[in-house]
Amino acid sequence: MAANKQLSRFVREALSAGKDRAEIEAALTQSGWSSNEVADALDAWAETAFSPPIPRPQATVSARDFFIYALTFGVLIFGAGHLVALFHALIDLTFDGPTIYRPYNQIRWAMAVLIVTAPTYLWLTVRERGKLAADPSLYRSAIRKWLIYITLLIAASVLLGDLVATIYALLNGDLTGQFVMKAAVVGAVAGGIFLFYLNDIRKGDAT
Questions:
Q1: Distance from first CA to last CA of the chain, Å, rounded?
Q2: Terminus of the chain with fewer CB atoms < 10 Å: N or C?
């Protein structure tokens, strides 16, 4: 039996015997268990007077969740990158003029990607929102949370990189209107994704 299962079984039997949580915590700490291990073991059981102790809902993992959420966030990141590329190409075309720089192939490719990824992402997201509304327990999907946090990490990294590039351009005297507009596009796209999923993870934590 794994150590965490032994600890969970001990806590359950101690709670069933009427032991106080503080007393269980002290006994486990004295026996060498870390404070985090003890806290996790106790948090796995609801604080009620009912006996035997009632387990709290746990995170779930499924192959279906991996497929759906990996596809959703993969399409999101891929599409967001090409959305930025599209606006950057349009900005270049506006500032440089068609005689100097002709990014038409880049514009066509970005539009082709967005025509596929935008409706795919919207369909997947609306579909999952409906399932989450009907069954809030789906918010406990471990894969969903991991992929949301990975997306938040990527968006935050892009925002920080965008800010660093803007400050560097300012210090280097290269902060043109064209650069500012490109940086604003990156900030708007990455910031929108970050705020959307930050609110989403908070809603899931509150469920």
A1: 32
A2: N
